[in-house]
Every structure is written in structure tokens, then in C-alpha cells.
Specification:
Helix content is 73%, strand content 0%. With 194 residues, it is mainly alpha-helical. It folds into 2 domains: 1-102, no CATH class; 105-194. α7 packs antiparallel against α10 (146-170). The longest helix is centred in the C-terminal third of the chain and has 25 residues, at 146-170.
Length: 194
């Protein structure tokens, strides 16, 4: 389920950052990504009693990443083919609207880079500790059980994730209403009084 849910990433990138992606490119890219996740996941083959070695980690890559790779290739290729000037202009207007209403105020813009760095570091270390930092290496140094080290690692990064969410909600103001919408609501209420 997580592998299939991750296939929405190109759509999210298309809405928030990349106005180049087209609807048909994203839809067919998602379909290709979902099919790739299903075909490269060992659960699919176990339903047919097929024992294929290391299918989930084909070339040491998880099925989610295979799906995203196929998804992005199809999305970008079809977006090149199906893009036109009017749709790009419409999407740029939408992106300008989003950046105008959901952007950070000037006094908080210096927090943007540290927030991105903190989120990326959390994703790297919290979601895949055995890839980037070997728990077995920690086990050789400390002499504890591997299970307790993994549990400790998950608790540590879980607490850091909660702290990161609090930081993003309070300091970067992701939990606040946009300032511009308050100004627009105030202007509209003043216009109604006149």
C-alpha cells in the first residue's frame, strides 16, 4: 500500500513546483508506477507460488523506487508530448496563486533552507537506518542486541520527527492561516460595508 501511495509524488510535485507536468502524463505515469510496484513486489509472486530470489530488492532497489522511476519517466515523456502553451499559462497562474497565498512572510523566509535540510535528514535517517547507518556496526561497537538498537533508533527518530513537526507548525507557520487570506477577507468585508 505504501509503494502505491508513493506514486502520487509526481502529482504533488506537479501541483506545487513543476507546472510542466500535464494531466495525461501524471495519470499514465501513476498507472505505470503502480503496475511496476505490483510486478516488482514479492507479495505479487507469492500469490502464484513463484519463488523469485530477492524480487523486492531487485538490483538493491525497493519496489517503491522502481515504481517512482517508471512513473517519472512516463510523466516527463508524456508531458513533453502533450504540453501546450495555454495549459502552461493556466498552470503558472495557479502556481502564482498558491505562492501568493501560501508563501512564508518575509521575516520567516530565512527558515526555509534549514527546514528543508532538517526534513531531508529526517527522511534519510528515520526511514532507512539500515541503508545509511548500519545497525550491525553499532552492535559491534556497543555489544547490545540488534533488536534493542533498532528499537532505540526508531524511538529516537520518532521523537525527532515529532519535534520537527512542531517546529514546522509553529516556527515555519505551516499550521497557521495564510496572511493574505486574512487581508482579502478584511478587504471583502470592508467592500460589503460600503
Amino acid at each position: 500500500a505504501l509503494g502505491i501511495a508513493c506514486q502520487t509524488l509526481p502529482a504533488i510535485i506537479g501541483i506545487t513546483y513543476c507546472s510542466f507536468f500535464t494531466r495525461s502524463g501524471i495519470n499514465l505515469g501513476m498507472l505505470g508506477g503502480i503496475i511496476t510496484v505490483i510486478l516488482s513486489d514479492p507479495f505479487f509472486f507469492s500469490q502464484f507460488n513463484l519463488q523469485l530470489p530477492a524480487m523486492e530488492y531487485l538490483l538493491n532497489v525497493k519496489s517503491v523506487l522502481w515504481g517512482l522511476a517508471v512513473n517519472f519517466v512516463i510523466t516527463i515523456a508524456l508531458s513533453f508530448i502533450t504540453n501546450d502553451v495555454d495549459s502552461i499559462r493556466h498552470k503558472k497562474e495557479f502556481h502564482n496563486f498558491l505562492s501568493g497565498y501560501a508563501g512564508l512572510p518575509r521575516d520567516k523566509r530565512h527558515l526555509k533552507l534549514p527546514s528543508w535540510i532538517a526534513c531531508i535528514l529526517w527522511l534519510i535517517f528515520a526511514l532507512s537506518p539500515t541503508v545509511f547507518v548500519s545497525v550491525y556496526d553499532f552492535n559491534l561497537l556497543g555489544g547490545g542486541s540488534v533488536l534493542s538498537l533498532i528499537l532505540g533508533w526508531q524511538i529516537l527518530w520518532g521523537l525527532l520527527g515529532i519535534s520537527l513537526l512542531w517546529y514546522l507548525a509553529k516556527n515555519v507557520e505551516l499550521a497557521y492561516y495564510p496572511y493574505k487570506s486574512e487581508r482579502v477577507a478584511l478587504r471583502d468585508s470592508l467592500l460589503k460595508k460600503e
